[in-house]
# Entry
Amino acid sequence: MQNIDTLNEQFGITGQLQFIEDSGFVMVDINNKHAKARISTYAGQVISYQPHTQKNDLIFLSENAVYQTGKAIRGGVPICWPWFGDDTSGYGRPSHGFMRNQQWQVMASNVDLDGATTLILGVSSTDETKAIWPYQFKLVLEIRVGKSLELKLTTKNTGNQEFTITQAFHTYFKISDVDQITVTGLDGKKYLDKLEGFSENLQLGDVTVSEEIDRVFQAVDNDVSLIDKGFEREVNFSVTGCTTTVIWNPWTTVSSRMTDLDNDDYRRFLCIETANAAKDNVTIQAASEHTLAVSYTISSLLS
# Structure
């Protein structure tokens, strides 16, 4: 684990950003005039973001989350990279890649002119990662905590051969109740249904959830919103670098088998994932890069 005192000396911002140890991991606590947030340097994972104007956190984090090296933290914004979903190589590699259990290094922190706080984390290929995925890379994650939560993940190909990736911000949104939410912006979009062997279907109307759902929406070229009547808020998404949106809720079918979730947690979160997945994969040439970015802005349904 990185030294807390050294991190605070190099990257801490008085009254706005500090490093602490919690559950055996290094956490970054941010509290500025716009919002407060917590980020784990393990997995490079945002685990909390709450504007001061909001009564509830944007992000769901399981009370049963496991904080252990080699395990993924259940909730927050896990980073799926360099593959999204199940590994199809036949080598028995973990689902969603290996960034969810990597230690990220702090590269920079700063206060922006509007009072927002930016934290930059990075991780590079090692002999360990090459044994799993034989390419040279550098990942840079920029997290901006302000009126919106903004995430940018840049993949840099530092080797001499091209590689192809799929990836996602696997965001767990905290919701008042699964019966109270609607996802707009996907009407008329085609999606692959993982629960039906990835068969292609057409979304008719807005998305609501009344059973297990795992849909990979394709060719999404417009903004998506999460409307939560119980929390009286709307979360608006602005995305660049991809055309795929994934919606997942395990319902009782899967959540009852997950030891890091309570049996009824499926009612309290919905994953809406900004992704390069399926046909929307990305080939990055040597010495080139690709950036996947999303911002989440919350507005009141009463305004």
The chain has one domain: 4-300.
